[in-house]
Amino acid sequence: MATRLQNLKKFAVLAIATIAISLSVSAQTWYIYGVYTWSAPHPVGSFYEYHHQGEAVNIGGLEYNTIYIQNPSTGNQLDGAFRNDGNQVYYCKWNGSSYDDEVLLYDYDLEEGDFFHDDDEHAMQVTEVTTIIDNDGVSRKKISFSFIGLPDATEFWVEGIGSSRGFMNVGMYEPAHDSDGEMYHMLCYHVEDDVIYVNPEYNECDVDNIDESTAGNNVSIYPNPAKDVIKILNDNNLNITNVEILDLTGRTVLSTEKTSDINISELPEGQYFVKIYGETTLVKKLFIAK
């Protein structure tokens, strides 16, 4: 009997450990759009890349998750590692040979009027705290910031996801037009194959693989703006399994397996996301005008 209990305990511990491991290794990915202005006569360019979670690593006795950056020109590169401690997120930058000392990357306990990195030349101040609903129906805190001394620069964080600049780009305020600089804008956030959040300022998430970032360019919605009926134009003949229409809060308002003659007449006018499932998951913007 004692042996059986010991075996059951061992099985329970193993099951719990397996569950914990399966949760900890869920692949998180942040898709990024970047723009740059460099050197005289200030050429302008743009690029896509993604930041994705890698293996766990121990730094100073604490466990972190590594973060990699991948884009077509640089390939896959280690950028650093992060860890969560309650509502705070800490980050260690990889300098090419070792990890730098950790810094506070996010503090999701901030409230309206609070400062973040108030000793910085352009400290961030919280202007508003609201709530959004992600694509899985989860409520998340949204913290909006302005920059001290930079009246036109803004940023927002979504709890558990990160900055509108991308997970590692906190405080990346917009450079002046005539200065060298690089800007990042988060397009969307994935966990495994699920699109959890799409940045409403860009409303796109069709870069599921950087090497195939044009896959979504040949999938579109017609007509757009629309009134009563839409169809999905699929020039690449992607295998589309189903289509969802979401409102701006991330709530699914229509779900169908059809790709043509999709009746939207019951939906109020306004802006929506169309989530297209198949070989890859695409999110497109739809305007309904009555």
Structural class: mainly beta
- Shape estimate: globular
Q: What Rg is obtained from the alpha carbons, in whole angstroms? A: 22 Å
Tally of alpha and pi helices? 1
The averaged pLDDT comes out at 79
- Estimated helix fraction: under 10%
* Whole-number tally of structural domains: 2
Ends apart, CA distance between termini: 72 Å
Biggest sheet, spatial arrangement of strands: 6-5-4-3-2-1-12-13
What would you say this structure looks like, in words?
- By secondary structure, the protein is mostly beta strands.
- The chain folds into two domains: 2-198, no CATH class; 214-288, Immunoglobulin-like, CATH 2.60.40.3080.
- The protein is 8% helix and 49% strand.
- It is built from one helix and 20 strands.
- The protein has one helix spanning 2-24; strands at 28-37, 44-59, 62-71, 75-85, 88-93, 103-107, 115-116, 124-133, 139-147, 150-158, 162-163, 181-191, 194-198, 219-222, 229-234, 242-246, 252-256, 262-263, 270-277, 282-288.
- The strands form four sheets. An eight-stranded antiparallel β-sheet has the order 6-5-4-3-2-1-12-13, with no helix packed on it. Strands 7-8-9-10-11 form a five-stranded antiparallel β-sheet, with no helix packed on it. A four-stranded antiparallel β-sheet has the order 17-16-19-20, with no helix packed on it.
- The longest helix has 23 residues, at 2-24.
